[in-house]
Structures are given as structure tokens and as C-alpha cells.
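FW: tagging you since you asked about this chain on Friday. Here's the raw sequence from the shared folder, copied in full. Didn't touch anything.
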Amino acid sequence: MKKSILFLAIIAALASCNSKQTPLSNDEKVNFVALGDSISAAAQKLLLQNVSSAIQQGGTSYAVDFCNTNAMTLTDSAANEFKVFISRLSDRNRNTNNAIATEIDSLAWQKIKSEKASFVEKTSSGEIYFYKPISIAMPTCIKCHGSELDIAESTQKIIKEKYPNDKAVGYKLGDLRGMWKIKMSKT
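HL: got it, structure written out here
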């Protein structure tokens, strides 16, 4: 029994190795980058509107609490709307779910850091991923992601409480903060 399961696993692996993967054409790359830009812009707008509203409602401390309970849900709602998978990743993440965890994402992060431009990758299994840099683009971002001098003590306290392993501080305006990762379908 074990031998036949092992044999089937080897056959399946060999069959997948032999499947021909066609690389994306230049037109497809352009189209997927445009689509990814559109989706990430909509998701970013949704997040920023909600965070801005939270800041107006109760200040940056309240906004940190709001992000802790709502940021992933907001991202998921955008993903559901566009029928894609969306994540925000960083090597200096606040939420542990936003850590760069795979070799593919690590390579994408290196490319984002060096080129600071959006791009599309098609994996050997045919999955299509869009990556886009996320920068500290507004002074408001510094109130939660800047230096200790930039972040109010009450906000620092709630960050430490909600995110004990936080690494998403010490940024300046214009710094690269992370990247969007959007898994798209070719159909």
C-alpha cells in the first residue's frame, strides 16, 4: 500500500514537472499590472478612508485599535469584491500575518526594494501574482509608523499592547513600508 502511494506521488510530481507553462506575454503583463494597480488602489483607498475616520473619531490610539480589529477584514472585503487574494507584506511588519514568510515573497520583496516598481510574476504552477510597493506617503502615517518622537505615548502604549512583536516603526516620509501582494486568475 505504501509503495503504491509513493509511486502515485512520484508520478503526480513528474506529471506536474512536464506540464508546459507558457510565460505571460508582454500584453498580459501590462494588463495584469494595470489590474493589480487598480485593485491595490481601491484596497488602499478603503483602508485609508477607514483609518482616517478612526483617527478623526478617537485619535491615533483609537486608530491602532481599529486597525487591529478591522484592517484584515477590510482587505478581505476588497479581495472578495475583486475575486482575488490580497495581502500586505513587510519585513518590518506590525501584524504577524503580514510578515514575509515564503521564499517567493522574499524574492519579490528584494525586487521591490531594488526597483521600487510594480511587477507581475507567474509561478511554475501557473498562479499569477502582482506586487506593488507601499510607501509612507502621508504625514499622518508617521503618527503610528514614525520614530518614538513622532508617535504619541498613548499610541505607543496601545501598539505595544496590541502588537507585542511590532517592527513597523522608525519610518520617515517616503520610506518603503511594505508591498501589496495580489493573487490573480489568468481567466
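FW: The chain has one domain: 24-184.
HL: agreed, and The helical segments are 2-18, 26-82, 103-115, 139-145, 153-162.
FW: great, closing this out.
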